Amino acid sequence: MEFSLKNKNFIELNKLLKLLSIAESGGAANQMIIEGLVLLNHKIETRKRCKLRIGDLITIEHQNIKVSIID
Fold first, then answer.
1. Staple 17 to which of 24, 29, 41, 46, CB 3.0 to 4.6 Å?
2. Which long-range contacts (CB under 8 A, 24 or more apart) does 32-37 make?
3. How far apart are CA 45 and CA 49, in angstroms?
4. pTM for this one?
5. pLDDT digits (tens, 9 = 90+) for 36-55
6. How far is CA 19 from CA 4, 53, 63, in A?
7. Rounded-to-integer distance, Cα 4 and Cα 42, Å
């Protein structure tokens, strides 16, 4: 799965999870992150508002999300 930043420099991790309906709400997204269920570039990420940029790879329950920018 790919996500386009659409002329933005970054998106926060918890907002991405909610936006893509991986989490039902912002609170659910935060809980997934706190519990260590989210990997950023193959490492557990526990910062809820971690800024995701071009080329970052997010893995959640065997789903890969690549963050990319479209001109």
1. 29
2. 32/60, 37/61
3. 10
4. 0.87
5. 999 999 999 999 999 999 99
6. 12, 16, 15
7. 20
For tokens 């907002």, the residue is 15
Start-to-end Cα distance in the chain = 18
Alpha carbons 17 and 30: distance in angstroms, whole number: 9
What pLDDT score was predicted for residue 66? 86
> Are residues 5 and 11 in contact, defined by beta-carbon separation less than 8 angstroms?
yes
- Joined together, the tokens standing for residue 67 give 């963050």
DSSP SS3 for 43: strand
Q: Which residue has the tokens 């971690």?
A: 50
Q: Which amino acid is at 38?
A: V
Which of the residues in the chain have pLDDT under 70?
Answer: 69-71
